[in-house]
Amino acid sequence: MKNSWIFEIKNLEEELLNIISDREDLKLVYKILNENSGISAFIMLYEEFNKSSIKFVDRTITLLKRVYVLQNKYASAEKLRRILDVDIRTIYEWRRQGKLENSQLNIFE
Length: 109
Description:
Elements: H1 12-19, H2 24-35, H3 38-49, H4 58-71, H5 77-84, H6 88-97
Helix pairs in contact: 5-6
């Protein structure tokens, strides 16, 4: 799985909910998938979103990548670059900037 690193994030549910807090559509998808499984989840998603398009903004994954980098501060930048498929300068920049602030979580910026 390409994004299996996501499962290694400490307090993943809390971090994800914090990142998607201003996205009602993603919060609803998360809730449906958390409370249902299989065909039941599919039908609920279809009923809720059949006349709309759900857009998964890359910013959500980018913020999760940053959380992963900050939680793995002792991992080499080269290793993180390969796992996350980002530029090594990005790893160093995220480490320099440190913890995410609430103002940085707006995924529409």
